[in-house]
Fold this protein.
Amino acid sequence: MSKEMLEIKNLKTSFRIKDNYYAAVDDVTLTLNKNEILGIVGESGSGKSALAFSVMGLHNRAKIEGNILFKEHDIANISPSKLNKLRGEAMAMIFQDPLTALNPLMIVGEQISETLILHKKEMSQKQRKEKVIDLLNKVGIPMPEHVYGQYPHELSGGMRQRIIIAIAIANKPELLIADEPTTALDVTIQAQILDLIKTLKDDIDAGIILITHDLGVVAEMADRVAVMYAGQIVEIADVHTLFDNPLHPYTRSLLNSVPNTQEGQEELHVIQGIVPSLSKLPREGCRFAARIPWIDDSAHEENPVMHEVAPGHFVRCTCHNHFHFPDESKEDSTHGIS
Amino acid sequence: MGFLDVEDLKVYFPIKGGLFNRTLGNVKAVDGVSFSIEEGKTYGLVGESGSGKTTTGRAIIGLNDITAGKVSFEGKDLTSKKSKTSAVRKDIQMIFQDPYSSLNPRKRVLDIVAEPLRNYEKLSKQAEKQRVGELLEMVGLSPESILKYPHEFSGGQRQRIGVARTIALKPKLIIADEPVSALDVSVQAQVLNFMQDIQKELNLTYLFISHDLGVVKHMCDDIGIMYKGRYVEQGTKQDIFENPQHIYTKRLVAAIPDIDPKNREAQKQFREEVQREYEHSYNDYFDNDGLAYGLQSVSDTHLVALPEKG
């Protein structure tokens, strides 16, 4: 039933700062199935966008190690011409800011046509225009014939994001990466765009990687969730498990710091310290250790690896077995899996 | 008379063009807004982009000119020209949205935080340094950081430097314009907790402007919802979240993503229901120009924009 379509193995993406390489994505192993939404959550600087850009092959200056297996290709070691064939056809991306992602000097109809010109050479001009109108219809744009000839600045933020989505799905990609697709939008528009992405997923039967910092969006959209911290995945599970029984201290802290809309709590949980910058990342030991100093050092592994605590539920490091929030007693924390 | 009273506030921006750059029309950014805030409370002003919430905040503090209406603070009229330079201004301060662009990158923390002090109080160099040190300590930064530059701090720390500058003159009212929307959730939690702490400590009143209903629900006592420059609903936190009356408020509340994946289906159904109601009864809630009607009271604390009953 579930079919793997993308396999990322031990991916390491490093950037050069002066003479040294620093890994923004470090030892990430992931799979994505067909017709599945995989949510990737993390704060700014956790490497989630670097991961997405690596998969799309958009980092031309970075050093990429490991494998990204997609359709009999390894994107980590692929020739640019082959990559160009894949991009826009078999895989596509929805960017965060719809204003900067669109060309301000080109009517939107032509911008959508571009990807068809590149990948569907056999189409006649008339067919292309029909297809573009059809796409505009699909993403819920009213009066598509009129919008075809408009420039991006004439459209609202939500409409622009719909154009971006139309470009992304033009060739029915198998893999769709949405990098913070609704962060720049108002909340009512966000609900509409998320709805659209969900409908399209079933329509084109694609695997979607949804990158966001908003835990609410993940809770509503994703089938599985990976939590990233400092370039590594620290926990991965299906969405219900992750929200019902989060294990890694980072996941638990993150969930506790969201102002809950259901019940009023007085104080929000604060994660001590800051996300370390790329050059200051600890290369050994548990990367989250510095932010939970009240947990004894012996609780952490020397070389934290992913442990499968339940089928499909992976957690990095052993510190989650001993974790408790500073203001609660130790007894409450030993809540393992029952 | 309340602590801060805003009466029928209007802020119009002229549209210039044509021959001789005449005024062709007006953008009614704020179009007849009235509310009042009690001392020591947090009042939330909510709306989507373009609803006029920021303009309202900026008009109160005097950064935008007021076209019509009245703003009075502790009984003093802020709309008169004289008050622009008067001491009242000292009592109202602002926290800005983006901690990356609201601090001058070429100034040291000392100069940033001391700027309001230099405007209003004559202090010796030594006394000034000490005051800034105290303020920094209050916001949880070490006094040694006065010689550092903004880029040496993280987003949350920068926002706290902004807060230190804001509270330097011991204001009574703080207008916080989206103070946490540029921050990550864990840092957001830090800033929100801290804002609540100093509120108790200094007996501050907040006008909290935000588009994030989750944050507003956490922080605010009373809430006003704006749409296209007008109020659509006003009430206590309970009124707005448990008993929303206006269709626009309902839509906003329904659009908040639920943090529990178990409620996914229920949330989806609720949203569809509200959407149907929105389409069905749009004309009952908005006039021919798509604007909200005047406010009618439905209870002592709860006001809703509904057409007058004929």
Q: What stands out?
A: DSSP finds eleven helices and twelve strands in chain B. The mean pLDDT of chain B is 88. The longest strand of chain B covers residues 22-37. Chain B has two domains: 38-63+80-219, 229-310.
